[in-house]
Amino acid sequence: MKILCIGRNYEDHAKELKNPVPSEPVIFSKPDTALLRNNDPFFLPDFANSFHYELEIVVRINKLGKNIEEKFASRYYDEIGLGVDFTARDLQDQLKKKGLPWEKSKAFDHSAVISKFVNKEQYPDLKNLNFHLEINREIRQKGNTSDMIFSIDQIIAHVSKYFTLKIGDYLYTGTPAGVGPVKIGDRLKGYIEEKEFFDFEVK
Ligand code: MG
What we know:
Layout: E1 3-7, H1 11-16, E2 26-30, E3 35-36, E4 51-53, E5 55-61, E6 77-85, E7 87-88, H2 89-98, H3 103-106, E8 112-119, E9 130-135, E10 138-144, H4 152-162, E11 170-172, E12 180-181, E13 187-192, E14 195-201
Parallel strand pairs: 1-11, 3-8
Antiparallel strand pairs: 1-2, 4-7, 4-12, 5-6, 5-11, 6-8, 9-10, 9-13, 13-14
Bound molecules: magnesium ion (MG).
Magnesium ion binds next to strand 1.
């Protein structure tokens, strides 16, 4: 099982971090040891100072595929959920400055929070889904999938040129604007439309 993630897929988020808006999807990956499931707490690591939440729609791949055409991409996933792409932002800034890979800041243990999944048929239009993150009962991040630069199907077509997709792989589809740091004691709840998908604490 692998986790593929898309960076800078919402223009307002690319701009808030002063990154260029990409002309093709920015891809990175996380190992399976990055997963944090079942509303388990996120223990703040000690190797960086600023750990940012990034709320993202996640799809689970349900079919083996390579070089998938965009028009067939929707056949390769049937469930969606929510994730948090935790990022050691100060460390990532240092790595970016040196032109080094992001792995240490993005792919560390428990950096990929994953919610429960639901059948995508529950939602009439995956290109118009509202999702939001509450921290300590305050809305901190809000997005709508209509603002994605690259749609889920376009992402699947693109990433499958480079990586064979396998059953059980996860695809994190990028975060909207509003990212920020977490601290010990924070309680994070994620929603798609009005339905709660995860609820966990930072310890
Ligand atoms: Mg992200």
